[in-house]
């Protein structure tokens, strides 16, 4: 009974934002800039490193150094090769987690508008 209560508490705990989530107790994103309208962070994922389960507000992202990431959502896992110089827009993500399954360090910049 205690184990079920603990599992339920963990499952209902609020997720960290991408800026606050880490990997094995270590931060992976460093705040680069913040003001009243926007914030930006640099996130670094060495081979075997990742980003624990977290949510994203709406954001724009840019791949500074590409890599191969395994991204897991409620729909399952997908492996993505992310090319240096590519970018994306997202309206937000309820949750996902990622791990670098490649051999090179991947580096992203994430920019979130504060609206």
Please supply descriptive tags for the structure shown above:
115 residues; mainly beta; Jelly Rolls; five-stranded antiparallel beta sheet; 1 helix; globular; disordered N terminus
- Kindly report the CATH topology: Jelly Rolls
**Which blocks of ≥5 consecutive residues have pLDDT under 50?**
1-10
Structural class: mainly beta
The CATH architecture term is Sandwich
| Biggest sheet: strand arrangement | 3-4-11-6-9
Helix/strand order: HEEEEEEEEEEE
- How large is the share of residues in beta strands? over 45%
Helix-residue proportion: under 10%
Number of domains: 1
Number of strands: 11
Number of alpha- plus pi-helical segments: 1
Q: What is the residue-mean pLDDT, rounded to a whole number?
A: 90
Biggest pleated sheet: 5 strands, antiparallel
The CATH class label is Mainly Beta
Shape: globular
User: What gap, in angstroms, lies between the N and C termini?
Assistant: 43 Å
CATH superfamily: Jelly Rolls
Rg, rounded, reads 15 Å
Please describe what this structure looks like.
The protein has one helix and eleven strands. The longest helix is centred in the first third of the chain and has 11 residues, at 2-12. It is mainly beta and 115 residues long. β3 and β4 form a beta hairpin. The chain has one helix at 2-12; strands at residues 22-23, 26-27, 29-34, 38-45, 50-56, 59-65, 67-73, 76-82, 87-90, 93-100, 106-113. The protein has a five-stranded antiparallel sheet, with no helix packed on it. Mean pLDDT is 90; it is low at 1-10. The protein has a single domain, classed as Jelly Rolls, CATH 2.60.120.10.
